[in-house]
Write the structure tokens for this entry.
Amino acid sequence: MSNSKFNIHNSKFKNIRAYRVGWLLPLVDFLILCPALLVMRRKTTKGVELRFQGDRKRIEQDIRHGAFFMTNHRDICMDAIWLTFLLRIRYFIRPYVGIGNNLFGKWWIEHVVRFMRAFVVIRNGGFRDQVNNATTLSQYIRHLRKHHKSIWLAQREGRAKDGNDLTQPGVLKMLTIDAEDFFESVKELNICPVSISYEYDPCDYLKAREMQLKRDNPKWKKSRKDDLVSMSVGIKGQKGRVVYRLTPSINHDIDAALAKNPELRELSRNEQIQFVCQIIDQHIHAAYEIYPRGTEFDEYIDSRLQLIHLSNKDTDFLRDRLYEMYNYPVLNYEKAVKK
């Protein structure tokens, strides 16, 4: 990677890049953000921990010169905020964070998040616009990684409402859109999957509600107001125990697989993408924190049902969806640890 002076003020990145604020951001972090998150951790959780899946020293070596932290997607805001907090406190790493422009419900939100080292993932526009936006975003991310900057991005667009965390092929397709050699392009990113486990998802009842609305009307779409409500509930709601578990770089898996099966290079691009998606999913699923569920969990589910207000409320369907979003991580974990 190049050691040239880092300069992200390229005009083609103007509409998406994070603002460069120099010494001011660390000052905001340690005088405002970190103290605020310490209070939030005490009021909304029973602890937020950073743990490791496998050899800790190996993982720390993998992230020493920057990494692409890819996580499952549980909460609109807190997924990236807690990871940033944990990495900032322990390793003085502050990743650049990808934020969809669909979340900019107020005019000032974009400026605040770009000041806080977030870059914009533009999700609107026609097909040609989407291709151009994906190309520019991919180039921006590679520019960051070329200069050893760390990055956070969710494994999929939008949260996995049913709890079934699967890497979206479109994410890898975007990241490697200009690549001639797919596997080498992925390795340059240095993807280190991170598994996020909430004991309780404060937005679970909102997700269940959305699933019934989508079932009853396939054309139903969330409004920006809905996103703002989810953001607020996700920030303020009770989460119980929260665990972020770092896993090694997938580069080790790719190298081992290619050494054993060189013919993987002859697969179609879509097949190669699916292969790497499965590696990322395996890392995330095997690293879940599995919380014990007793009879009091049934009472918890009933209490969440009471928060759902719909004119045609389907209680049985909603109850099944709530149980499903907590059961899927357990099922995926059990499958992953058997491999």
Remarks:
- Residues 11-204+224-292 form a domain with the Glycerol-3-phosphate (1)-acyltransferase fold (CATH 3.40.1130).
- The radius of gyration is 20 Å.
